[in-house]
Amino acid sequence: MNSAVIILNWNGVEMMRRFLPSVVEHSPEADVIVADNGSTDDSLSMLERVFPTVKTIALDKNYGFAEGYNRAIKQVEGKYEYVVLLNSDVEVTEDWLSPLVAFMDEHPDCAACQPKLLAYHDKQMFEYAGAAGGFVDKFGYPYCRGRIFSTVEKDEGQYDKTLEIHWATGACMMVRMKDYLDYGGLDGRFFAHNEEIDLCWRLRILGKKIYCVTDSKVYHVGGGTLPQGNPRKTHLNFRNNLTMLFKNLPEKDLKKVMRARYWLDRVAMLQSLAKGNIADVKAIMKARKDFEEWKADFEKDRADIQLKRKLHGSQDLTNKSILWQYFALGKKKFSEIFA
Fold first, then answer.
1. Edge-to-edge strand order for the sheet containing 142-144?
2. Which of the four pLDDT bands, split at 50, 70 and 90, describes residue 312?
3. Cα separation, 255 vs 297, whole angstroms
4. Per-residue CA distances from 30 to 83, 98, 214, 327 (Å)
5. Neighbouring residues of 194: CB distance < 8 A, sequence distance ≥ 6
C-alpha cells in the first residue's frame, strides 16, 4: 500500500467507536493507523479488541496535535508515499480516498490536498474547519471557500471546482510524506491550531502546491477537543497565528502586517470586552505576550524560510482584508468577495 490514514487520538475512545468503522470500511487501499497521544482511557485496549486490523502507535505522553503527528509519521517513515492526517471525529464516505491519491499521483508538484469538508450534524452545510479549501487574507486571518468567520454556507455545488488553495485543513489532509519530512513537518511548538496553515505556507514558499480536491468529501463534527469560545483555543489561535506570520511573511510585508495586527488584536480585545467575555480578553493579551517572549526562538526558522523562498511575495496572502469585506461591506460569502 502506498498510503496510510493516521488518526491522532487522546482519550477519544467513544469518538473512535463512533467514527473509526467508516474509516476502516471505506479505506481498503490504505493502512489505518491510530497514533495514541498518551491516553489514560482504554483507547488502546479497545482498539485491540474491536478493531484488530487497525495498526497502533503508542506515544508516551500527549504531545499535542502538531508534535504528535510528527512523531507518528517519523515511525512510519519510508513505508508510505502519502499519509492522511485525519481527525478522530470525521466520518468518511465511500471512495473518499482514491480521488486524493489519483490527484497527488497526477500532480507531483502538489505536496498536500484536502477533500470537501462538510458538517457531520448537517450534511448539507460546509464545516467550519476547512470547508472547500483555505486561504489567508492580507493581515493573516484564515478563511475558506464556504466559511468566512462565523458564516458557514450550504453546499450547493458552488465550490465543486478542484482548486489551488493556500492551506488544507488539518482535520483531513493528505500530504506527500517526502515533502512533509523534507520541509520540517508541523511545528511542534504550536501544540495545536494554525499548525497546518503554517506547514502549507512553508510548502508553498518552497515551491510546492496545495489543493482542494472536491471529488472527495468527508463529514466532520469539529470542536471535539477545544470548542469555539474556549479561552485556551483563543490563546493558541492568536499566539500561533502571529508566530506563523513572523516565520513566513516576506521581508517587505513583515513590519506593516505586524503593525496592523497590533491594532487589530486590540480591536478584538475591545469586542470581547463589550460582550463581557473577560476570559477571551485575557487570552488575547497572554497570546501577544507569549508571542513576544518566544519570537526570538523563531528567528532562525524565518531566516531559513526566506533564504529558500521560491514563491513570489505577492502570492503569500490574498490581497484583500476579510475583516473589511465581512464587517464593513457586508460580504459574508466567498463567492461575493471573489466573484
1. 134-136, 142-144, 147-148, 151-152
2. confident
3. 18
4. 9, 10, 20, 44
5. 142, 236, 237, 240, 241, 243, 244
What CA–CA distance (Å, rounded) separates 334 from 338? 6
Q: Residues 49, 42: contact at Cβ < 8 Å?
A: no
Q: Can you list the positions of beta strands (E) in 66-186?
A: 82-86, 90-92, 110-119, 134-136, 142-144, 147-148, 151-152, 163-165, 172-176
Model confidence, pTM: 0.95
Q: Coil, strand or helix: which one is 52?
A: coil
Question: Residue 94 CB: number of other CB atoms within 10 A?
Answer: 9
Nearest to 267 by CA among 177, 199, 214, 327: 327
User: pLDDT digits over 146-173, tens only?
Assistant: 999 999 999 999 999 999 999 999 999 9
Q: Which three cell numbers stand for residue 3?
A: 498510503
**Cβ burial, residue 25 (10 Å; 0-12/13-18/19+):** exposed
Q: How much helix, strand and coil, in percent to the nearest 5, is found in the chain?
A: 45, 20, 35
Q: If you search the block for the grid coordinates 465543486, which residue do you land on? A: 160
Please report, for residues 122, 135, 147, the alpha-carbon distance to residue 119 in angstroms, rounded to integers and kept in the order given. 5, 19, 12
Tracing cell 505586524 back to the chain, one arrives at: 258
Short-list 147, 21, 164, 170, CA closest to 91: 21
DSSP reduced 3-state for 193: coil
CA separation for the pair 37, 58 (Å, rounded): 7
The region, left, alpha or beta by phi > 0 then psi within -120 to 50, assigned to residue 176 is beta
Query: What is the overall mean pLDDT for the chain?
Result: 96
Maximum Cα interatomic distance, the chain, rounded to a whole number of Å: 56
- pLDDT of 339 reads 77
